[in-house]
Amino acid sequence: MVYCLNPQCAQPQNDPEHRFCITCGSVLALGDRHRAIKPLGSNQRCQTWLATDDRDPYTPYCVLKQIALRTPEEFTQVVEVFQVL
Questions:
Q1: Residue 12 and residue 5: Cα distance in Å, rounded?
Q2: Which DSSP string corresponds to 9-74?
Q3: Model pTM?
Q4: What is the pLDDT along the chain (85 residues), one digit of tens a residue?
């Protein structure tokens, strides 16, 4: 299963062979490489996904974090936190 990352998509689950979401038409791979395969958690402003990296066979899994930011300052704060991690 591959998930559509469009927050407004009504049916985000897709078969792995699809390149575009069958419901909303969004591209299923970020940067034509990262595909969300399993939801790991969510809250009002953030979703976390287990994902695959189709270009790196040695590191088949990664984590995608989809964050709804309200201001440019929030983006800077998030970047600083992830740089520490």
A1: 7
A2: -S--EE-TT-SB-TTT--BSEETTTEEEEEEEEE-SSEEEEEEEETT-TTS-EEEEEEE--SSHHH
A3: 0.81
A4: 999 999 899 999 999 999 999 999 999 999 989 999 999 999 988 999 999 998 888 888 999 999 999 899 999 998 999 899 8
For residues 12 and 26, the answer to whether their CB atoms sit within 8 Å is: no
Positive or negative, the Cα torsion across 44, 3, 84, 79?
negative
Beta strand 46-53 pairing with 61-67: antiparallel
Cα separation, 25 vs 32, whole angstroms: 15
